[in-house]
Write a structure and sequence with these properties.
The chain is of the alpha+beta class and about 575 residues long. Helices cover about 35% and strands about 20% of the residues. It is globular, with a radius of gyration of 27 Å.
Length: about 575
């Protein structure tokens, strides 16, 4: 039987590996094998009897049967700035009984238990759509798009042929980089059953022939003012009342598109349209349960049958091409290289109505790469996404007050981790526990150092405004999670179960009270197209969690065209 030794690898990677070594043959220059407790790299080599240093070696297959790759060295301003997670160890049974279960060094949690808990959370967190629910989703979507068509007809401000981006998950879920301070607290199960974010372009600038240069002279990095000089005279005249005006010495006048004034107009227009619609209710039409302005976001909760759907509707400015401030990011190597094309990643970006910590709310917009993130999501392994969703659920509850940390920060950390770590490591199905601990470690590292670089604009530090006191408060909270991740996962699972129970109870009450549903409309004029409903059901089943771009003609809202990722329908 071999003897267990602890050795330090002298081979690449440059980052030190720590091995549990097992002597295969004894004597001077003994042959040993071992697995690194950090990255799982397995090697054969020789070791001197009086030393514990691995002299030479060749990599052998890891436990999954694939070649274990060395960890990647960090790049300046990106992966290396987030640190690593050196707290996973292989346990050993007492009295030399062989290698025991894999443990987390910090909390002593068994990795297989963490994997199991993450799987259980994913099961309860996933939305299951039956025929009725699929039809309700389609009815709510149809209602929202018809409402926007009516908004366009009010004063012709919105583009006639518009392209919306529909994202699965609300703003509170971190699907878009926006501040959460001014948002009302909504909870799944209590207030809604499903949530979506809809980006609605108020203006479009779709010239793809050159990099887009924005006026960032007055703004923090990653933010911009928007002059209407980029647009034609007709557009300026339409939107003058939603602009701040700057008169120059030479007598010219510059109109700056104001996110707060645009949000004012958008909320008033939506409220007016919904008021008119509710004056003439039709059977099967969704119930408008709430319309609320949260900062520059309009939140609408619809009741359809027994389902409640939250739509966070955001007025944005849409651009084709890529901003000049992010051009250097394209020069770097990324995890998605070779998996999707650069053209898919840089197809466009948005300005969303959010300002920097010291910016002027009435003038400043924030760059958003939501369209690119939809494409990048296709390159992330399911086990990492499960760990991210579980970690997000934990921090939403834990770090809700004060609202210094958004789930979007965690999303950025995950993207940096994808750039930093080998693809075959991230693809391992049974490593979701490792990924969860790594995300917690990286987020805590970001808080302690008050440094979280934006993935697309690495020179933009998204935590620069944090006070030392707030950063350390959240870091200490994360430390408690790191000390007992299994217990926090169990709590998160119970929250998911409770939300599901509330949803089921409300659905049961709705069915017992004979609440109107889309299928209860017997008139041919308002009856939803069964073929479209069946197609939608198929798309939802085949594309869980994917995002949808929608093309709508307000003059004919009965024929919506929509895209799920890169598929058109």
């Amino acid at each position: 039987m071999g003897v267990a030794l602890l050795g330090w690898c002298s081979l690449p990677p440059k980052r030190t590996c720590t091995f549990i070594l097992k002597v295969v043959s004894s004597g001077s220059g003994a042959i040993v094998s071992g697995s690194c407790i950090w990255c799982g790299l397995t090697q054969l080599g020789s070791i001197q009897a009086s030393s514990s240093k691995l002299i030479c070696g060749e990599p052998v297959s890891d436990r999954g049967g694939k070649m274990a790759a060395p960890a990647l060295s960090g790049r300046a301003g990106s992966a290396g700035s987030l640190g690593n997670s050196p707290t996973i160890a292989t346990g050993r049974l007492p009295h030399g009984g062989g290698v025991g279960p894999e443990l987390d060094f910090r909390s002593a949690a068994r990795m297989e238990d963490l994997n199991r808990l993450i799987q259980e959370f994913s099961k309860h967190d996933q939305r299951e759509y039956d025929d009725q629910r699929a039809l309700e989703i389609h009815t709510a979507k149809d209602f929202i798009f018809s409402m926007l068509g009516m908004v366009q007809k009010l004063d012709q401000k919105l583009p006639v042929a518009n392209e919306y981006l529909l994202l699965s998950g609300g703003i509170r879920e971190g699907v878009v980089d926006m501040d959460l301070d001014e948002l009302s607290v909504y909870a799944r199960g209590t207030d809604y059953d499903m949530d979506f974010t809809l980006l609605v372009p108020a203006l479009k600038l779709h010239d793809r022939n050159q990099p887009v240069t924005l006026d960032m002279r007055h703004s923090a990095l990653g933010h911009s003012w928007l002059s209407l000089r980029l647009f034609d005279e007709g557009t300026i005249n339409k939107w003058k009342d939603c602009c701040t005006i700057v008169d120059h010495i030479n007598g010219t006048t510059n109109y700056f598109f104001s996110p707060t004034l645009v949000a004012d107009w958008f909320y008033q227009s939506i409220s007016l349209v919904l008021l008119e619609v509710q004056k003439k209710p039709q059977r099967g039409m969704p119930r408008v349960e709430k319309v609320e302005r949260n900062g520059t976001i309009i939140s609408v909760i619809l009741g359809v049958g027994s389902s409640r759907m939250l739509y966070d509707i955001v007025p944005v400015v849409s651009f084709k091409g890529w901003p000049a401030v992010a051009q250097s990011w394209l020069m770097e190597n990324h995890f998605w290289d070779g998996k999707i094309t650069e053209e898919e990643v840089i197809s466009g970006f948005y300005l969303v109505p959010a300002c920097s910590y010291k910016g002027r709310k009435e003038n400043e917009w924030r760059l958003s790469f939501a369209r690119s993130e939809v494409q990048l999501k296709k390159c992330i392994s399911s086990s990492l996404m499960q760990a991210y969703q579980a970690c997000k659920a934990i921090i939403i509850k834990l770090l809700s007050r004060p609202k210094a940390i958004s789930p979007y920060h965690l999303r950025s950390i995950m993207l940096w981790a994808c750039d930093r770590l080998p693809a075959n490591y991230l693809a391992q199905d049974d490593f979701s526990g490792h990924f969860l601990l790594g995300l917690i470690d990286d987020l805590q590292h970001c808080l302690v150092n008050k440094m979280c670089p934006n993935y697309f604009i690495p020179q933009c530090n998204m935590l620069e405004h944090l006070s030392d006191e707030t950063a350390m408060l959240h870091a200490r909270k994360l430390s408690s999670v790191r000390s007992d991740p299994a217990e926090h996962l169990r709590t998160t699972i119970e929250h998911a179960k409770a939300a599901n129970r509330l949803t089921v109870e409300l659905q049961w009450r709705g069915s017992s009270n004979n609440l109107p549903s889309p299928q209860s409309d017997a008139s041919g004029e308002n009856q939803p197209d069964d073929r479209l409903a069946k197609k939608l059901q198929q798309l939802v089943t085949e594309n869980p969690g994917k995002s949808i771009s929608v093309f709508i003609n307000p003059d004919d809202v009965t024929r919506p065209h929509f895209r799920i990722d890169d598929k058109f329908f």
